[in-house]
Design goal:
By secondary structure, this protein is an alpha+beta fold. It contains 4 helices and 6 strands. The chain has one domain: Nuclear Transport Factor 2, Chain: A, CATH 3.10.450.
Length: 154
């Protein structure tokens, strides 16, 4: 009986270790660059043509209680933001908390900070606590899902 239990534990941890692999430093760097570029190009530059470069076709954003798709981001958020008389410049920075790899995906959590400015004058600081899933594709890493919660700032 003890041998069966030991065998079961060995098999369980072997399978688990295959599922939860270590994230290599170069993978972490690729993911960090992916999120930085996606936020700089899509959310900072409001460039809807870059969505397909950074997001999978089935991308979902859970944004403070709302469900957004690539189409929502393009036709609602970006289209509306571009109607502003003067577009603020958005500067993005991130503090990464954790990375977890499973086969061809990496789940990661991070703090997202944005500073909005117009004509070089800061108008607002924003912060979100976010998690995301990136999928390894033929074109490289792409975001498949983002979950975002606004953090109140003083």
């Amino acid at each position: 009986m003890t041998k069966k239990i030991t065998l079961f534990i060995f098999i369980f941890f072997s399978v688990y270790s295959l599922q939860a692999q270590n994230v290599k430093p170069e993978e972490k760097q690729s993911i960090k660059q992916l999120i930085q570029s996606a936020f700089d190009d899509v959310w900072g530059e409001l460039d809807s043509t870059k969505i397909e470069k950074y997001h999978t076709d089935d991308f979902l954003l859970l944004e403070h209680g709302e469900i957004w798709t690539n189409d929502t981001i393009k036709s609602c958020y970006i289209a509306k933001a571009r109607t502003a008389e003067k577009l603020p410049k958005r500067t993005n920075s991130f503090e990464f908390i954790r990375f977890v790899k499973s086969k061809n995906s990496i789940w990661f959590a991070y703090q997202n900070y944005a500073t909005l400015s117009i004509d070089g004058k800061k108008i607002m600081d924003l912060q979100w606590l976010e998690s995301a899933v990136a999928i390894k594709t033929k074109q490289g890493w792409k975001l498949q899902m983002l979950h975002s919660t606004r953090v109140a700032r003083d």
